[in-house]
Write a structure and sequence with these properties.
This protein has 74 residues and is an alpha+beta fold. The protein is built from two helices and five strands, in the order βαββββα.
């Protein structure tokens, strides 16, 4: 399941910087629903999704929810 209303699209740039500070690197997205993709050696990829037609919010997988919560606490 994915969390569909936690990351506002206007915060995507700050989230991108946050991920770099955590040692993740961006990677090319795969498919029309992926908005951002990050990788870090030894970890599963972190993928941020955008539902087609979504204007305000991005989605994250449950496995990445803790990382998103850490970002939102800043």
């Amino acid at each position: 399941m994915a969390d569909r209303a936690t990351l506002h699209i206007h915060k995507a740039g700050k989230f991108y910087s946050f991920m770099y500070s955590k040692g993740y690197r961006s990677e090319a997205t795969k498919g029309p629903y992926e908005y951002m993709r990050f990788t870090k050696e030894g970890f599963l990829p972190v993928i941020i999704f955008k539902k087609l037609g979504a204007k305000e919010h991005l989605s994250v997988q449950d496995k990445d929810h803790e990382l998103l919560e850490e970002f939102l606490m800043l």
